């Protein structure tokens, strides 16, 4: 049974779910012995209360900022709820972040307390530990000691919780609930603070749109919890009383999915691309899909980046209702979504009714609504983000078709202006070439140049399958590979205007990666970093104007 009407604080949401479904299973996670352990909603809420009491006994106060620097796991979720019960705002820090990024968030957010996976992360925190009230270490170290300074082990915290007592904290809808940091494509992070009311406005919009869900059904928690996307989906599960399966490591996702048989599943486009490639190689894709995804998926949602059309077509044809949605970190209410019975291939769907959406004269998507942020945390450039009417400038370019479906055409800041005066959105060009099953990634370049070139990662598996041979990642010693890729560029480029076509390409020696700063944690392209890192390779492409040379003079 869903909670209706929904409250205006996250704390009340958990209280209501624990009261309505005390004996229903709230979560399942792998226990120390390797078996699945389950927690009921009453146990889930009681544990959060206990941890809250322990936090408060260690000095956590209302208005403090509690940071969680940990992989996706059940303890992350319990710490989040416990912190909210104490009146604190939760600050998620990606465990893959650099030491510089971690220190920036700790200082910029004014973090007072910290929860980490292990002692190795305390070493990264270093001198910042001196400013903290306490730090909680979830995983027990091999030597049995929790760490340094005011560090407490999670199990010790739970023991302290039995003795701790503090009167309830009154949490108001306009109290801060979370402070998130964007993983910008420019590499610069910005903080966004949201109140309980705004987070719950996003939750209400999701519940009204993805309404075909029910109590006892399943979903997965596996994407980074430092970002808002996964945590909003967790709240949606609380609304409907769904069981949350925690998959702590990405490599566990498919095995957990087969066990959980989720009705709600969400992932970044890269996951679905790999799934589609697997299905293409299966003699019976529908049977393979049922085995892989559990057979119950009602909503398979993707966002964060464009999805190649062939992936959507492949998965729909195999029985997986993949629906593309679109949102921004600056608004907990998504901007648009497709639905199983109301979709348009290539679009991000129709706008959520809670928002007001309009297009600027240049096609930039503008949004206004009840959950929209009011500006970046501790940033004086707030007026630059909004129009005079209070619409947020998303920076995304789009268009509506005659039926109201929104199509995105790239980032305004990423427009390429060639030396011939043409203005080109690279994301749209990359989507066309990205339909090739032999290209894993395509990055179009050409700002200030007279034509476009591309950097590519190959889909080695698909190429090896058609050419009947195993290939190295660079494939620079295989003329047949370059010939195959050349033909892909030539015939797919026929869909484009002559000035939009790629004239030369270079095969990158390694996949683009988060570690090298080329991708955000949600796998969006960081174009400036990519172009800077591969500047010499791009320059060499312009030394040869003839596409048949493929990679120019390498």
CATH homologous superfamily descriptor of the largest domain: ANL, N-terminal domain
Strand arrangement across the biggest beta sheet = 7-6-5-3-4-8-9
Identify the CATH class of the largest domain: Alpha Beta
Q: Report strand %.
A: 15-25%
Count of the separate structural domains: 3
Radius of gyration computed on alpha carbons: 24 Å
Overall structural class, as computed from helix and strand content, comes to alpha/beta
* CATH topology name of the largest domain: Rossmann fold
Share of helix, binned: 25-40%
Straight-line distance between termini: 63 Å
Folded structure, characterized:
With 554 residues, the protein is α/β, with parallel strands linked by helices. It has three domains: 10-195, ANL, N-terminal domain (Rossmann fold); 201-404, Rossmann fold (3-Layer(aba) Sandwich); 415-549, 2-Layer Sandwich (GMP Synthetase, Chain A, domain 3). Helices cover 32% and strands 21% of the residues. The chain has 17 helices and 25 strands. The strands form six sheets. It has a seven-stranded mixed β-sheet with strand order 7-6-5-3-4-8-9, with helices on both faces. It has a five-stranded mixed β-sheet with strand order 12-13-14-15-16. A four-stranded mixed β-sheet has the order 2-1-11-10, sandwiched between helices. Strand 13 (299-302), helix 12 and strand 14 form a beta-alpha-beta unit. The longest helix is centred in the first third of the chain and has 17 residues, at 41-57. The radius of gyration is 24 Å and the shape is globular. The N and C termini lie far apart (63 Å).
């Amino acid at each position: 049974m869903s909670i209706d009407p929904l409250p205006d604080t996250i704390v009340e949401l958990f209280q209501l779910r624990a009261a309505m479904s005390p004996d229903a299973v709230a979560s399942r996670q792998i226990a120390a012995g390797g078996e699945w352990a389950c927690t009921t909603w009453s146990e889930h809420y009681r544990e959060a209360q206990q941890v809250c009491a322990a936090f408060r006994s260690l000095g956590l106060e209302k208005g403090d900022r509690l940071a969680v620097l940990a992989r996706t796991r059940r303890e992350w979720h319990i710490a989040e709820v416990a912190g909210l019960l104490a009146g604190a705002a939760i600050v998620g820090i990606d465990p893959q972040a650099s030491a510089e990024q971690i220190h920036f968030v700790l200082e910029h957010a004014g973090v007072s307390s910290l929860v980490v996976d292990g002692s190795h992360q305390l070493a990264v925190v270093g001198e910042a530990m001196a400013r903290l009230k306490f730090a909680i270490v979830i995983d027990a170290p091999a030597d049995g000691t929790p760490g340094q300074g005011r560090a407490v082990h999670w199990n010790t915290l739970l023991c302290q919780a039995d003795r701790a007592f503090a009167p309830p904290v009154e949490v108001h809808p306009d109290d801060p609930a979370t402070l998130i940091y964007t993983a910008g494509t420019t590499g610069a992070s910005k903080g966004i603070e949201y109140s309980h009311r705004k987070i719950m406005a996003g939750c209400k919009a999701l519940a009204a749109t993805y309404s075909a869900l029910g109590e006892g059904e399943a979903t997965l928690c596996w994407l980074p919890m430092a970002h808002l996307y996964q945590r909003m989906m967790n709240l949606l599960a609380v609304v409907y009383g769904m069981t949350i399966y925690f998959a702590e490591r990405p490599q566990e996702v498919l095995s957990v999915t087969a066990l959980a048989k989720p009705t709600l599943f969400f992932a970044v486009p890269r996951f679905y691309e790999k799934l589609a490639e697997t299905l293409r190689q299966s003699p019976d894709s529908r049977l393979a899909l049922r085995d892989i995804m559990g057979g119950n998926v009602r909503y398979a949602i993707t966002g964060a980046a464009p999805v190649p059309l062939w992936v959507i077509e492949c998965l729909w044809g195999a029985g997986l209702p993949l629906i593309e949605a679109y949102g921004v970190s600056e608004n907990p209410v998504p901007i648009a979504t497709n639905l199983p019975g109301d979709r348009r291939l290539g679009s991000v769907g129709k706008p959520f009714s809670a928002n007001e959406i309009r297009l600027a004269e240049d096609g930039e998507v503008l949004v206004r609504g009840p959950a929209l942020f009011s500006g970046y945390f501790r940033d004086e450039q707030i007026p630059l983000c909004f129009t005079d009417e209070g619409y947020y400038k998303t920076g995304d370019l789009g268009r509506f078709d005659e039926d109201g479906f929104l199509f995105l055409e790239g980032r305004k800041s990423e427009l390429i202006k060639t030396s011939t005066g043409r203005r080109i959105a690279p994301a749209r060009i990359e989507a066309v070439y990205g339909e090739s099953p032999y290209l894993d990634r395509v990055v179009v370049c050409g700002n200030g140049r007279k034509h476009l070139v591309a950097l590519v990662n190959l889909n080695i598996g698909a190429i090896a399958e058609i050419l009947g041979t195993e290939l190295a990642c660079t494939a620079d010693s295989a003329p047949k590979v370059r010939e195959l890729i050349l033909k892909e560029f030539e015939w797919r480029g026929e869909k484009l205007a002559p000035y939009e076509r790629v004239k030369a390409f270079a095969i990158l020696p390694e996949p683009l990666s988060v570690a090298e700063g080329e991708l955000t944690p949600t796998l969006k392209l960081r174009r400036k970093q990519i172009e800077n890192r591969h500047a010499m390779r791009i320059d060499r492409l312009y030394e040869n104007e003839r596409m048949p040379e493929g990679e120019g003079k390498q």
